[in-house]
Specification:
The complex is a heterodimer of chains A (315) and B (365). By secondary structure, chain A is α/β, with parallel strands linked by helices. Chain A has 2 domains: 149 residues, 3-Layer(aba) Sandwich (Rossmann fold); 141 residues, Rossmann fold (3-Layer(aba) Sandwich). Chain A is 46% helix and 13% strand. In chain A, the strands form 3 sheets. Chain A has a 5-stranded mixed β-sheet, sandwiched between helices. In chain A, helix 1 links the parallel strand 1 and strand 2. In chain A, helix 6 crosses helix 7 and helix 10 crosses helix 11. Chain B has 365 residues and is of the alpha/beta class. Chain B has 3 domains: 124 residues, Rossmann fold; 76 residues; 157 residues, Rossmann fold (3-Layer(aba) Sandwich). In chain B, 55% of the residues lie in helices and 10% in strands. Chain B contains 16 helices and 8 strands. Chain B has a 4-stranded parallel β-sheet with strand order 2-1-3-4, with helices on both faces. Chain B has a 4-stranded parallel β-sheet with strand order 6-5-7-8, with helices on both faces. In chain B, strand 3, helix 4 and strand 4 form a beta-alpha-beta unit. In chain B, helix 2 packs across helix 3 and helix 8 packs antiparallel against helix 9. Chain B is globular, with a radius of gyration of 21 Å. The chains are: A alpha/beta (315), B alpha/beta (365). Chains A and B meet through helix 4, helix 5 and helix 12 of A and helix 4 and helix 15 of B.
C-alpha cells in the first residue's frame, strides 16, 4: 500500500505524526516534492479561483502524487485546541480536493480533532482501517507517531541587534518557495528573526484575554497573542507579517495587531500566484533600512515644535 | 439608551415592530446605500468581506442620528462573522465614536448566564411588564415570518402572475406602508392584509416560467443592496425564484440547532457532498442546490461576497452537483466594486441559457 502525503498546508508542522503513523502500519510513504513553480501551476489549474494561495499549492501537491499512491492523506483538521477552529477551508479540504481534481484515489476524509489523545486516535482508527484491521497495530503505530510528533519542534529564533518577528501561518513562513525565501533574505541582511513559537506563553495568553471575545481560530490566538506579547516586552523591533491574498483570518488578525501596536513598525506582505520577487525585495529592503535607522541612528529627540512623548498634542 | 441595528434585508421592519412594542428608543439607519458602502470600505480592513463594510457604514449613519448602543447577533466560528464585533468595536473606538456593543452571542462561547445578562440590559430599558415584553417579541417574530412569506410568495409568483408586475407592486407597497406605521398591532394587521392580497394574486399555472433557486451566503442573498437587487431584476424578467435563507429561517435554525433538529431535509440533502458543518452556510448552500435539482428547478444562482471562506468550499463542490444532478449553476461574487453592467449581462445570459436548454434535445437525459 502506498500512502501519499502532500507537502502542503500544515504538513510542515505535523508531518512526523502522519509519516510515522502510516509507516508504522507498513505502508510506503509517497511525498510530493517541495513546492515549485510546477506544483503551483498544477494547483492553480485545478483549484477554485477564489481560494487562497496555500490552498491552491496544496491542490498542486495532491495532483502531483495522485497517480502514484493508493490512498491520499488529506487531513480534515477541524480543531487543534478545544473549541477553536483552524479555518473553514481546512474543514472542507477533502471535498475541495475530491471535487476539483479528477481521478483521485481514495482520500482520508474523517474529521481530525487534535485536542485530545482519544479523538486523535479515532482519526487513526478510521484512516488506518484502509490498511489494517488490527486495532493493536494501529495503537502501536499511533504511540510511535505521537512520540515522533512530540520531538518535532518548529520555529526560528535568531536574535541580533535588530530582530523582527516573522508572523504568519506556518505554511507560509516555512514554505521557502511560497514566501520567496524571506527567511534567508533576512538572514543575509543581518536581521534577526523570531517566530510565534518563541513568544512567552503566559504573556501571550494574558494579551489574548484582553480581547472582547475569546478567539475561535487557533491562528488568531497564536499570532495575535505572540505579536502583542513580544511587542509589549520590547523583544522585537518590528513585525513582518506574511499573508496570502484573500486570507479570511488574516484580514481580521492583521488589523487586530495594528490596533494593538499603534505606530510600531509592521510590514504586511501578501502573496499570490505572481512570482516576481523584485517588489518583495524592494519592500523588504526599505523596511530593514527604516528599522536600522530607527534602532541604530535614532536619538529619539522630537523635531522642532513637537512634544517629547508621542501621542500628545504638539505644544 | 438609543439602539441601532445593522441592516439585513427586511429585518429592520421586524426590529421596528419589536422596539415600538417594547417602547425602547431606537434608530433605523438609512437603507444600505452608496454612502454606507463608501464609509464602510474606507474604515474597514481591505480584505474583509462585504457585510462587514456595509455594517460599519450602517453604524456610522446610526451614530450620526443619535444612537449610542449597537445591537448585534454573533456566532462562534469558524466563519469570520463571529469576529465582527471585536474588530468593529475597535474600528469605532479608533474613530472616536462612543458606542456600546451588545452582542447576542452563541451560548457556546459566552454561556447561558451572560447571554441572559445581555438580553436583560436591553430588556430593562422597556417599561412593559414581562408578559408584555414576551408578547412584543412574539409579535415581532410573527411579523418577520409573515414578511418573509409575503416576499417569498411574491418572488415565486412573479413568473405565474396574470398581470405582469403585480407581485412586485404589492411587495413594495407593503414595505412602504408597514414602515410608516408606528403602532405595532396595526403594522401586524397590515402585514396580514398584504399576506392575503399576495395569496389572492391572479395566477396562471399553465405558464412555464424559468425557475431559479437563489443560494449562497446568507447576508448577500438577503440584503438586496449587496446583490444589486437580483430578485427584483428576476421578477422583472418574469422568472420564479426561491430562496430558503430568510431571517425567520435563520432564527428558527438557531433555536432548533440546540436540539439538533434544524433544517433536517436540507442537511440530509447535503450529506452526499458535504457531510460536515464547516461554518457559515456552506452546507445549506450545497443542500439547497441538491434540493433545487430534485424539485425541478431550472438552475441555481450562488451569490457570495469576495473572500467568503465557507462559500469558496461550496463553490468547489457545486460543479460536481451541476454535472451529476444536471443543474446549471451560476456563481456571482460581489464586493464593493461590483459593476452593474457586467453583473446584469451574466444574469441575462444565464436566464437565456436556461430558457433554451429546455428546448434542447438533450435537456432531459
Amino acid at each position: 500500500m502506498r500512502v501519499g502525503i502532500p507537502k502542503g498546508l500544515l504538513y510542515c508542522k505535523y508531518h512526523p505524526f502522519f509519516e510515522t503513523f502510516f509507516r508504522g502500519l507498513g505502508a510506503e510513504i509517497v511525498n510530493s516534492e517541495d513546492t515549485s513553480k510546477n506544483i503551483l501551476n498544477m494547483g492553480v489549474k485545478v483549484c477554485v479561483d477564489e481560494a487562497c494561495l496555500p490552498v491552491k499549492i496544496y491542490h498542486g501537491h495532491a495532483a502531483s502524487i495522485k497517480d502514484r499512491c493508493d490512498l491520499l492523506v488529506v487531513p480534515r483538521i477541524m480543531q487543534v485546541h478545544r473549541n477553536e477552529y483552524i479555518c473553514p477551508k481546512f474543514c472542507g479540504l477533502p471535498e475541495m480536493i475530491v471535487h476539483s481534481i479528477p481521478g483521485m484515489p481514495p482520500v482520508t476524509s474523517a474529521p481530525l480533532y487534535m485536542h485530545s489523545k482519544k479523538s486523535l486516535f479515532q482519526w487513526c482508527v478510521s484512516s488506518g482501517s484502509a490498511i489494517t484491521r488490527s486495532r493493536s497495530r494501529i495503537r502501536h503505530a499511533f504511540e510511535l507517531a505521537l512520540k515522533a510528533q512530540n520531538s518535532h519542534k518548529t520555529g526560528i529564533m535568531d536574535q541580533k541587534d535588530i530582530t523582527v518577528m516573522l508572523a504568519g501561518h506556518p505554511y507560509i513562513v516555512y514554505d521557502a518557495f511560497l514566501n520567496m525565501d524571506i527567511v534567508n533574505k533576512l538572514k543575509a541582511k543581518g536581521i534577526g528573526i523570531l517566530t510565534e513559537e518563541f513568544a512567552p506563553c503566559a504573556a501571550s495568553e494574558s494579551q489574548v484575554k484582553k480581547l472582547l471575545k475569546k478567539p475561535f481560530w487557533t491562528f488568531q490566538r497564536n499570532l495575535f497573542g505572540a505579536s502583542a506579547a513580544l511587542y509589549e516586552q520590547k523583544k522585537i523591533h518590528g513585525i513582518i507579517y506574511l499573508s496570502s491574498f484573500a486570507c479570511g483570518i488574516d484580514s481580521v488578525v492583521i488589523d487586530l495587531i495594528r490596533f494593538h501596536t499603534g505606530d510600531f513598525p509592521m510590514l504586511v506582505i501578501k502573496f499570490d500566484e505572481h512570482t516576481g520577487e523584485a517588489g518583495v525585495d524592494t519592500r523588504l529592503e526599505a523596511f530593514t533600512d527604516m528599522l536600522e535607522r530607527r534602532v541604530l541612528n535614532e536619538d529619539n529627540r522630537p523635531t522642532y515644535g513637537q512634544c517629547l512623548y508621542s501621542r500628545q498634542n504638539p505644544v | 439608551m438609543k439602539i441601532t441595528v445593522p441592516h439585513m434585508g427586511n429585518v429592520y421592519i421586524a426590529v421596528k415592530i419589536l422596539f415600538d412594542g417594547l417602547g425602547i428608543d431606537y434608530v433605523i439607519p438609512p437603507l444600505n446605500n452608496k454612502e454606507a458602502l463608501y464609509l464602510g470600505s474606507k474604515y474597514s480592513p481591505d480584505e474583509i468581506c462585504l457585510p462587514f463594510k456595509l455594517m460599519i457604514g450602517n453604524y456610522i449613519a446610526g451614530i450620526k442620528n443619535g444612537a449610542d448602543t449597537i445591537l448585534l447577533v454573533g456566532s462562534c466560528g469558524p466563519c469570520r462573522f463571529g469576529e465582527y464585533p471585536e474588530l468593529q468595536h475597535k474600528i469605532l473606538e479608533h474613530l472616536k465614536y462612543n458606542v456600546e456593543f451588545i452582542v447576542i452571542d452563541a451560548v457556546k462561547s459566552i454561556g447561558l448566564r451572560e447571554l441572559f445578562n445581555r438580553i436583560r440590559i436591553v430588556g430593562s430599558e422597556s417599561r412593559k411588564t414581562l408578559p408584555g415584553k414576551i408578547n412584543s417579541v412574539i409579535r415581532a417574530y410573527n411579523a418577520m415570518c409573515i414578511l418573509d412569506d409575503i416576499e417569498s410568495q411574491a418572488h415565486f409568483k412573479a413568473g405565474y402572475e396574470k398581470e405582469r408586475g403585480e407581485c412586485k407592486k404589492i411587495l413594495n407597497f407593503c414595505k412602504e406602508e408597514v414602515l410608516s406605521c408606528d403602532n405595532p398591532d396595526k403594522a401586524l394587521k397590515l402585514l396580514k392584509d398584504y399576506q392575503d392580497r399576495i395569496r389572492n394574486v391572479a395566477v396562471d399555472y399553465s405558464k412555464k416560467p424559468v425557475k431559479v433557486a437563489i443560494i449562497g451566503e446568507i447576508y448577500s442573498v438577503i440584503e438586496p443592496f449587496t446583490n444589486l437587487f437580483i430578485e427584483d431584476i428576476l421578477m422583472d424578467m418574469a422568472v420564479s425564484t426561491r430562496r430558503n435563507l430568510t431571517p425567520s429561517w435563520w432564527l428558527k435554525d438557531m433555536l432548533l440547532k440546540i436540539i439538533r433538529l434544524n433544517s433536517r431535509e436540507l442537511l440530509k440533502a447535503s450529506d452526499e457532498f458535504l457531510p460536515l458543518c464547516i461554518g457559515g452556510h456552506a452546507r445549506e448552500c450545497v443542500g439547497e442546490a441538491v434540493l433545487a435539482s430534485r424539485e425541478g428547478f431550472d438552475g441555481a444562482i450562488q451569490i457570495f461576497p469576495m473572500g467568503c471562506m465557507p462559500e469558496i468550499v461550496s463553490k468547489a463542490i457545486l460543479p460536481t452537483i451541476s454535472r451529476e444532478k444536471k443543474l446549471p449553476v451560476l456563481s456571482l461574487i460581489v464586493d464593493e466594486m461590483t459593476g452593474e453592467a457586467g453583473y446584469m449581462t451574466r444574469i441575462e445570459a444565464f436566464i437565456d441559457l436556461l430558457e433554451r436548454r429546455r428546448e434542447h434535445v438533450f435537456a432531459w437525459n
